[in-house]
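User: Fold this one for me? It's NERD domain-containing protein.
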Amino acid sequence: MYRKHYAPWFGNLATMTACLFAGTLMLAEWSLGNTSEMTPVYGGALLLVAWYAYRQYVRRAYGKVVERRAQRALKRAAAHTHWQARFNVPCASGGDIDALLIGADGRRVSVEIKSWSGLRVARGQLVKLNGKPPFGDPIGQALREGQSTGAWPLLWLPAAGRRGRFTYRGVMIVMGDASYLMQVLGRY
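Assistant: Here's what I get for NERD domain-containing protein.
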């Protein structure tokens, strides 16, 4: 089910706030001598959970900023081509499609925007430039979004340092700015 105000980061903020409050309270009680010797361990563990939730929130917030900037850039770039751009299109498989491009000839491209600095294939697996696998299943997500709209799936990394493109498991992966994305689409 599509929810217009989908906010997965809200759980990160709630977890961070609760753990920060409880951990700080436990450490304060321990410093007053009112609790057992294990209290600082539990309090410290809660503060670590709060730190982890904060890092997840920052990652998601950065991703949303990159997505919004990329959508604006794509809107400007598409205005000078035969492509029409629609953004945050509800997807039957859940969530939304970051951008749906519709060509004058009826071709459709579903664009999933990611904030990573690049992707590559190593030993047959898709990995980020640091060699670690990407979070979640971006290829599966792009394929589901493309299938739900009858569009060609594309994964776009507008924050990538270098331009490049390749296909992995039926998904075109484009690294570079919006003008490069439009240039790649002009070839297909």
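One thing worth pointing out: Residues 83 and 137 are 27 Å apart (CA to CA).
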